Amino acid sequence: MFKLNKDILFLIFEELKDDSKSLFSCLMVNKLWCETIIPILWRNPWCHKINYNNKNYLLAIISFYLSDDTKEFLIKKGIQIPTISSQSLSFDYLSFCRSINIDIINNIISIESSYNQFLLQQEFYRIFIKKCPELKYLDIKSIKHQIFYFPEANIRLESLCELECDTSIDSSYFYGLARFCQYIQRLIIINIDPKENNGISKLIEVQKNLKYFEWNDSFEDSDYFTDDPYKEILLELEKKANIINHLKIFFQYVDNFRYALLQNVLTKLYKLKTLICDFSIFGEQEVKMLVFKDLEILNINYITLNEASNMIENSGGNLKEILLKFYDLYKFDTDFDENSLNFIRKVYKNCPLIEYLSLTFPPLEEHFDEFENLLKNCQYLKSLLLIISDIRIFETYDKTLENGEELLKILVRSAPVNLREIRFFNDFKFSLEALENFLESWKGYALTILTSDTIYEGDDYKNLINKYKNDGVIKDFRCESTANVENIHFKI
């Protein structure tokens, strides 16, 4: 049997770094595979799909690194330290680790006393700071220890690339981080306390390579703020306009002043490649002012078709994802027919590289024609979310099936060869015969189809779907919730 060398194996397994199930299954093949995979798994051991509440062995591995004096001290405090039967570990696991996740470390510690938990957490953090050659990723949500005071912390924290935190952490903590962490590339903040946090502003201010910024409000509705949690953050982001490429931002409470400030900052972030935001606060004139020539990902909540068309026209032809949640707004669009036609045309004229796309349009002949033009022009398209409906048009059940048959014929004729996934939102229907003709004629990749209509869970449909699964035409055909169908990042 041909034997791959370690370097080739590493490159292969590196491609699977986000597929922990496959990596774990490969561990037992042989010693070489195991030696190659362990460093990959332990680079970020917290990201794998594991029930950490019941992983005593992971706790035992970390505990192994505690000094005898520390173990003796903890045992005297009544803390049970798990042990490993062998005298030494097969690998120096923590030497591979480049990340700390506070929440998960807390989850694997099952100690009743809060004080004992505090002691054990402190020793674990100290061990990680000592043993990890460098830190790339740090999740400090709910942290209670000032880890930047540990010996060697300054050296470890200087290499930090990604930080996740929440606003329950005192400003002084972020001041401490700002001393050492000045090359963070990804900063993710969960706002659970709607108060001004000057420490976060300071941390943003000192960054020299901040490429990705994410802010998510997660607190109960408030009629007003005594402090402004947004102003200083936005002003600091504006100063980073020449380096920020990716922005994901959801503000729960925006008054006129904050709205004007957010709009002003967005107009300055001219280098954005990713924009994920809520546009319910903007109008069409304001959206026209947003010009992002490098934009690749546009994922917006509550945007009208006209606003989306303007943004697409103002982009530089680099868009790869257009995922827009406008299907609640089209009901109130008096020019929905014309606006949806214009949107489809803007996409295929301005987005030759598009891979992921959500579309909404009425089931009319001209719209089907333009949809086919889009398929012919957008040859890189991989995933489609289709919302083909108009509440102002009453259609019989037979007419709905006729529309479904026409859509499937268009897909067979003109779908790009890269198309791998189609999502049908709400009650779009296909007759059994039309679906069979479509699957029989499909010549592209094995398709994944998601729908929220339970009609396809009937026995006749299931038998047909299973037949084409066995033939390799369908990868999966799933009835899911509307929320999962419209979430393009939900994967089966």
TrEMBL record:
Question: Gene3D superfamilies given for it?
Answer: Ribonuclease Inhibitor
InterPro entries linked = LRR_dom_sf
Source superkingdom: Eukaryota
Protein name, UniProt field: F-box domain-containing protein
